[in-house]
Amino acid sequence: MATDTTAAGTTPTEDAVRAALATVNDPEIHRPITDLGMVKSVGITADGAVTVGVYLTVSGCPMRETITSNVQEAVRGVTGVTAVQVELDVMSDEQRKELAASLRGGQAEREVPFAQPGSLTRVYCVASGKGGVGKSSVTVNLAAALAADGLKVGVVDADIYGHSVPRMLGTDGRPTQVENMIMPPSAHGVKVISIGMFTPGNAPVVWRGPMLHRALQQFLADVYWGDLDVLLLDLPPGTGDIAISVAQLVPNAEILVVTTPQQAAAEVAERAGSIAVQTHQKIVGVVENMAGLPCPHCDETVDVFGSGGGARVAEGLTRTTGAEVPLLGQIPIDVRLREGGDEGKPVVLSDPDSPAGTAIRSVASALGARQRGLSGLSLGITPRNKF
Ligand SMILES: Nc1ncnc2c1ncn2[C@@H]1O[C@H](COP(=O)(O)OP(=O)(O)OP(=O)(O)O)[C@@H](O)[C@H]1O
Ligand SMILES: [Mg+2]
C-alpha cells in the first residue's frame, strides 16, 4: 500500500500519526498521551504537514516543552510527514475528572461520605490567599479545641506539597490498612491524615493536578473517619488545583478564610475567598491571625502587621458573596502558639488561657456550636396541610 512505503510525497494517514502519538508517554504519568485523553486533534494537509492539538492537564504545565518536543519527534518519524506543529490547550474540569477516573484503572470510585446528602459532618476548608498566614496553625488548634470540647474531629492535610499538620499535632504515627480502608492515626483526640505519612523522610511530592485530586479523593473516601462532627481541611495557599478538587469532591464544604491584618494580605485573601462564588461554596467566616503582639512589659499591643485586615476581608466577602461573612476572631501573635506548633502541642491545650489560646477557643466554640449539617437533609416528614 502507498502509505506503507517511505516514498516521498505520500500523504500520511491519521492512523499512522495516532500510532506514533501512542508511543509518546506523559512524562509524569508514564502512560501514552493517547490513553490519557491528551490528544485533542490531528490535522493533516495534502503536502504532509501535520498539526497535533494536545491537551495539557493544567495550564502552565511544567512539562509543556517536553511534551511538545516528544510529540514532534514521534510524528516527524511517520512516513510522508513534512512538518509538525503542536498546538497546546488545557483540559476542562470534566476532562481532568475523566483522566483521574482512568488513572484509577477503572476501579469504582468510592464515595466521599461527607458529600452525601445525609452527612451530618460539617466540613471546613481552611484557606488563604497568601502563604504563611497561619492556616495550618489555625487548623490544628481549632481541631484540638473542638476535640477537647468533646466533638469528633478529623483533619485532612490537603497541603500536599507543604504538609505540616502531623508535626503541628505531634503525630508520627503511620496509617494502617484494614481491608480497603486506611485507618488514620490520631493525636490529641483528632484523627489526622497527611501525605507526609506516606512519603519516606522529608521526600518532596511532585505531582500535577490529576494526582493531587486522586490523593485528596483517597483521603476523603478511603480513610475510615467514622462519624465525625467536624472535618477540617488544611488547604495550601491560593486558589490552585486542590481548592478546585475540594469544591468538586465536597461541594458542601464551607470555607474559613485566614488572613493577617495587613492590607496586601487582606486583598489576596479576599480574592481567594471570592472563588467561593464560582464554586458555589459558603464562606463560614474570616479569622484574622497575627493580629497584634501584646507587649510583654506593658498593656499595649504592637500592630506588627497593621490592623483591620480581617474586618476588611469579612466586609469585602459579604459584599461579593451577598451573604453575611462574619469576622470570627482575631488571634494575636503569641510565641507559645509557634512553640506549640513546633513541639506538636497545640497552644489551645498547653496554654488554653493564653491570648492566642483564648482567641482560637472562641472561634472553635462558634464553629462547634453550629448545628451539625442538617441543610439539604430530608427529615422524612411531610408538612400537613392546614385546614
Ligand atoms: N498567631 C501566631 N503567633 C505566632 N506565630 C504564629 C502565629 N500564627 C502562625 N505562626 C507561625 O507562623 C508560621 C506560619 O504559620 P503556618 O504554617 O500555620 O501558616 P500557613 O498559612 O499554614 O503556611 P503555608 O501557607 O506555608 O501552609 C509558623 O511558624 C507558625 O508557628
Ligand atoms: Mg500550612
Question: If you had to describe this structure to a student in words, what would you say it looks like?
Answer:
By secondary structure, this protein is α/β, with parallel strands linked by helices. It has two domains: 2-91, GMP Synthetase, Chain A, domain 3; 113-368, Rossmann fold. The protein is built from twelve helices and 15 strands. An eight-stranded mixed β-sheet has the order 8-9-5-10-4-11-12-15, with helices on both faces. α8 (263-279) links the parallel β11 and β12. α3 crosses α6 and α6 (209-221) runs parallel beside α7. The radius of gyration is 25 Å and the shape is elongated. It starts with 13 loop residues before the first helix and ends in an 18-residue tail after the last helix. Adenosine-5'-triphosphate is lined by residues 128, 131-137, 159, 162, 164, 237, 289-290, 331, 333-334, 337-338, 341, 356. Residues 14-86 form the MIP18 family-like domain.
Approximately how much helix is present in the residues? Answer: 25-40%
Q: Number of DSSP helices?
A: 12
By CATH, the superfamily of the largest domain comes out as P-loop containing nucleotide triphosphate hydrolases
Q: So, CATH architecture of the largest domain?
A: 3-Layer(aba) Sandwich
Reading off the top of the CATH hierarchy, the class of the largest domain is best stated as Alpha Beta
Detail the poorly predicted runs.
1-7, 374-387
What is the count of structural domains? 2
Largest sheet at a glance? 8 strands, mixed
The helix-strand sequence is HEEHEHEHEHEEEEHEHEHEEEHEHHH
Oligomer classification: single chain
Heterogens: adenosine-5'-triphosphate, magnesium ion
**N-to-C terminal Cα separation, in Å?**
84 Å
Cα Rg: 25 Å
Average pLDDT value? 84
Structural class, judged by helices and strands? Answer: alpha/beta
Tell me the strand order in the biggest sheet.
Answer: 8-9-5-10-4-11-12-15
Strand content: 15-25%
Number of separate strands: 15
Subunit structure: Homodimer.
Pfam families: FeS_assembly_P (PF01883), ParA (PF10609)
Family: In the N-terminal section; belongs to the MIP18 family.
Function: Binds and transfers iron-sulfur (Fe-S) clusters to target apoproteins. Can hydrolyze ATP.
